[in-house]
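Table S2 (continued). Query chain:
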Amino acid sequence: MQVEEGLQLTGNPFVDTGIAVVGVLRGYTEYSKLSQLSISDCQVVHGDGSGLALTNERLKSITMWFTTNLVLKNPAIKSRSQRRKAYAHIVTALLDEVGRETFPRRCEACGNSRSLDLTALYNRALEIPHERQVEHNIGREWFPLAGSLGSDAQALPSASRGIHLCAKCLFFVQYAPLASIIYRGRLAVFQSTSNEFWYSLVTSIVKELHSKATGASGSIEIPGKGGVALERHLWDLFAQMKDTRLPEHLEVFVWMFTNSGTSPECQLIEIPNFYLRFLYELGRRGLANDALRLGRRFLACAERRQDYSGLYPWKGKTHVSPKLYTLYQSVVMGCSTRSLAIAYELAKKANELLPKKTVDQLKRRGGLRDPISHGRLRPIILQMAGKGQLTLQDYLSLFPRNAPTKIDLPSAHGWNIINYYMNHPEPEADPSRALEGSLDGGATEDASELEAYASAIYIDYVNSFGRERFAKILESHQITPEWLRRRWIDLARKQAGFDYYEWRRIATEGEKPGVWVTLFELELLWARFLHDEKDGEKEKTGFSRTDFVLLESKTHETELSERSGLVEPFRSLFIRTLMSLLERVGIERFGRLVDKMVRGEIGLSWFRSQVFSACRDIADAEDVWESSLSDAWGRLVIRERLFQMQLYLANFYRVSKVVYVSEN
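Corresponding output:
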């Protein structure tokens, strides 16, 4: 009888592993040949079962697989030779019974239409006299995690019967221990998205255990010492692949389980593709031993996609080569080769331009973790942008905006990378040389929308005050959050897209209304604009109103009020105030008031007087005004509320002017 044509695996990791082990022992070197496996092949491998009995008896893990109730280890049978003989007879009987099962219940491991009557097989295989025959249920001593009725600790409280399994599944699972390892303190077998890769991995483990079984007497310890057994086998496997590329979507699944004691359990974990690629590149580039020297903690951090602190210098010493570091950052941490190259160049310039004492401080582990140290490098970053050596996309690839951070910074990880390269300024550490080819580990964030806003502010300012003045204030660091707020208000009266909603979305970090991060990104863009125009690379910085999410069709008064940041009931009072003011003074004078506001000549007291004048008939107008100056937690937010009112006034004027022109 042939195992399913083409080896349609059962899907059960224990049975499939056993099938693969038998195939390996039969001499099938490739997964494609496993479809040739037949009952006669299994009989050749198994023989009378004495070889399997002896090997499994020597395995230290056998009781972890099948508990001490297994015939082979059952202390009730005193003679070891008798235990081996009984085990061999039963397993051989299982093989003989494949395809001949009579119990009319479907196998719950592979779906076979009939399952095995274990009591009948026991009595027949061991030739037990009728008067001594007892009932035998399939439990954990024959199949991992299979609870039986009776006193088995794995039996569910509501169970009404034992598990149904066929002879094929029970036979092959006896060979599965020969392809298991210890992984994270538990037994483990494997599956994969690639059957070919899975079979090669099983082959590697079987060959190691088989060599131990034939090479010496005594107990056989399965791989797992030091916690890197899987990695070692994968490296051996990758070495055999030579120049063959790793399958693009390859993943390995580890079934970790324990079947002994009173708390059997199973856990499935995934070995992701990026970690397999990392191991593959380590082996291909001759860095596997370097990784092993760093220990299991290094590999565990890589598998969890966490930066490993041991990569960075400690007390003036670095223990990781630039090749290993660059590979880790590219494949594990997802950094692009370009972002690493930017960090390397920035580190070199910091070493050259900053005082030696400052450089020594920054080169320590954690030397670039505080805002003060970042402030020392940011002028160098701006200088690189001004010379055309760095773009905003380059900066965001090193400091992604959505990276979690406890302080008001884009990302701490990018500073760690610069810290490493400050300790390794040698040419060999250049990422393009260290990697010997790009691995394209990461993707750049889309900065097109921020660039559109930067273009609008830049063009408006240059048209109003000239390019030289803009370059001067940028070079002298006069661009502050307050300056940006004034530009935002000024543009709000001229074009759509500059309301408070867009301000919070574009110019702030999360819920905290701080703009320093965005302001620095804008400065990078403006420095690059000035460089490109100076070199004639751009005749004009491109900008289109359609670059904005907020279109003109969304600037109706109702939409503006909802995007103003003002809350009820104050919002209704403020809208009433502006409509009353417009009706009273007309559009031209209203425009002059907006001009005064942009120049900073209109403040909170003016808005207060206008609200009280327009809403004098509302009894609680003063209370509403006072409460509007605090947030939901009772904290005063006078500055932010004034900014909201100024923005709404500017946008209200712009929309009202369009309506006025169309009516006249």
